[in-house]
Structures are given as C-alpha cells and as structure tokens.
Description:
By secondary structure, this protein is of the alpha/beta class. 33% of the residues lie in helices and 20% in strands. It has helices at residues 72-81, 100-115, 135-146, 150-157, 177-189, 201-209, 219-222, 225-242, 254-263, 285-289, 295-298, 311-322, 338-341, 359-367, 386-400, and strands at residues 3-7, 10-12, 17-19, 21-25, 28-33, 41-44, 49-52, 54-59, 84-89, 125-131, 159-165, 194-197, 246-248, 279-283, 328-329, 416-426, 445-453.
Amino acid sequence: xxxxxxxxxxxxxxxxxxxxxxxxxxxxxxxxxxxxxxxxxxxxxxxxxxxxxxxxxxxxxxxxxxxxxxxxxxxxxxxxxxxxxxxxxxxxxxxxxxxxxxxxxxxxxxxxxxxxxxxxxxxxxxxxxxxxxxxxxxxxxxxxxxxxxxxxxxxxxxxxxxxxxxxxxxxxxxxxxxxxxxxxxxxxxxxxxxxxxxxxxxxxxxxxxxxxxxxxxxxxxxxxxxxxxxxxxxxxxxxxxxxxxxxxxxxxxxxxxxxxxxxxxxxxxxxxxxxxxxxxxxxxxxxxxxxxxxxxxxxxxxxxxxxxxxxxxxxxxxxxxxxxxxxxxxxxxxxxxxxxxxxxxxxxxxxxxxxxxxxxxxxxxxxxxxxxxxxxxxxxxxxxxxxxxxxxxxxxxxxxxxxxxxxxxxxxxxxxxxxxxxxxxxxxxxxxxxxxxxxxxxxxxxxxxxxxxx
Length: 454
C-alpha cells in the first residue's frame, strides 16, 4: 500500500483556487493540506494546476460503422491528451444508437477499453446518448427507462440522455414531427435530459432553394441564424409544456443566446404541469474562436453544423459565457478523413471538426490573455479564467447529465489533470492520436498543456 504525495500544486475548482498538497493512497485522496509527512513517494508539481478530469458532453467517436474516421480507442486517446476523462457520445453511428441492442453494443465496446489499459493507461468513461427518429425508438427508450432487469439497469446508468435532431445533419437522424412531442412528454415524466440539435428543416430548405453559389462560405447562409432560433423556440415550448430538462447543443447565434437567456427566467407556473423548468446549453470551441472570415484560409476544414457565424454572433456567445447563460463548452468532436473534407465540391464536404484534444489548450491560452487565432493578432481576450474552464467543462456538465463525478476532494477516487500553465507549444495534428490526422488549428501557438493525469 503506497502513499503518493503531490507537492506544490494549485487545486482548481469552479469557484476557487487552493494551493495545497495532496496525499493519494491506492487511488483514493486521503488528505489535502500542508505539511503532510506520511508518504512513500513525492512528486513535485510546484507551479502546476490540478484540475478534475474534464467532461466533454458532446463527441462523435464514430464506432461502430465509421471506424475509418475514428474509433473509441483512438478518440479516447485524443481526449486524454486534452485532459478529458469523461465523454458523452452521440448516436449517429452505424447502426445508430436508437435500440437497446445498439446501446448494449456500444457499452460493451467502451467497457472493453477499460479492461485493456494499453495504449491508454488512464481510464476514460464513455457515456452514450440515445437517438430517436420514430415511434419504435421511443418504445425502446421507454423499455430502457422502465426496465428493472440487471442488464437494463446497467445500460440506463451508461445512458446520459436523448439526442434529437430537428433537421438532418451527419447521419440523417432527424426526428419525425409526429414523434417529437411524445419524446418531450416521456422524458419530462422521467426527468431525463433531452439534447437538441436546433436547426429548422423548412428554413434550411428555403435557404438552399434560393442559393446558386458553390463556395464553402455559403454553407453559413444555407443554415441561417434564423433556423437555429426557430428550432430553439420550438424546443423550449415543448420543454415548458412537459417540464422536460432541455439542453441546447452547440449554440451558435445571438438570437439563440437571447432565447436561452430569457427561458432561464421561466417561473414554475409558466410550465403546464406546474413543475420546474430547466434549460441549459453548450457552445463549441470552434464557434467561440472562428468567424466566417476564416473560410478564406481554412475552407472546408471549418465546415460544421450549425455553421461558423459572423463576429457579431461570436461576441454574443462570449457574453453568454460571461453572464452564465452558457452552461458548458463541449467540442462536438466530429472527425472525418482529410480526403472527405477535401471534396472537390465544397458543399458536399462532410460537416464536422475534431476538437477533443485541443479544447483545453485553446481555453487555457484565452485564460492566459492570449487570443489563439493567428488571423486576429490584435483581438482582445474576454475576461476568462481557469475556474471558468472547470465550471464549463466539469461542474456544469457533471450536474446536467447526472454523471456522478467528483471534484478533487478527500475520500474520493477521481482523475487529477496536472496542467503546466506556462508551457508554450504549437498544435500539430501529427502529435494528436485522433485517427483523422488533421486539425483546423494546425500550427497555432498555445499556452498551457496537460503534463499528466494521475
């Protein structure tokens, strides 16, 4: 029984920074304080930051069915490189996670990773969203939520919510209109989170019909800001009616931020059943860092759904972070091969950006007061701190999706991410174990890096 002492670090939580030593025995934090003397091995981490293992509540790890883009093993390795030890994985794989058997298969694959520590010596916890497009999938969800067997109980613990697409995106998983309200009703009854990809199909269809251009920048016009606003309004109306916990994925617009901000002011009697109403949202790093001006340099590498927006919308997202409207930062990590992204017909290039390895260094750079996008050398960083990173990438997603993770505190076993805030480096895809082998942040200078995970 060995006792490890971490000496000289600063423990960061969502609301505090504490300079203290940590004694760990058999993986459990036994003591936190100063002048701890009972230890067998000491690791000097003077000047380093200690963060709880971060949570990325929106990833696409591509397995099963799309393993040429990524696998649970390769993308988990990328996550760990970025200090992320828990991820919530989306259902649009092949087959999609819309049945009990598909969920069971994914859980089995994830648990097999834990049994084999190579090449990832640190464990990663993969949770899964359940997808619904039709009534058969809703019936499967009811079986999952109501089942009492040991298997269903186990699978339910690995499922962090329902994912709904209000328009088609990668995987064509749009929910049928005649099923949509029933999903909100069932999830409201079970207090089960619903995550919405908020884009309105009819608005996008009209925009596409009016377009005659083929350059990639037009992608942001084919899925206009109004599309997101209309879809969010629809989701909020249903969530209020059925008291459903609602989470808006990858918020990207000024209108969306304002809708969420106003909905958070909902009082209990605004809900049809008299219950409390909760709405939360996330923003992706690419929407916080890029603008439509970056299409000229990066082309299809930054083609995503919802698309990159103008500087006005980016500013609104940062304001939402600063005033607490935005609850989470999540990457929407979505690897595609470089050949796929370099489609000679840019609008046919698949939408998605890999990002689970780069989220933390990009955010640490902004927290250090250095804007990472080299195309904007005179940009001013918003007031943002490492505590904000823990709030948005650990505390809030942990609470919203009931993940049961622990802060760095006595009596618990929890991953500790050791960060060197002073280390400066450049992002290179060749250093990232993600299978796709590219990043839109290639060559960017960042300040702050993961030293190890304990």
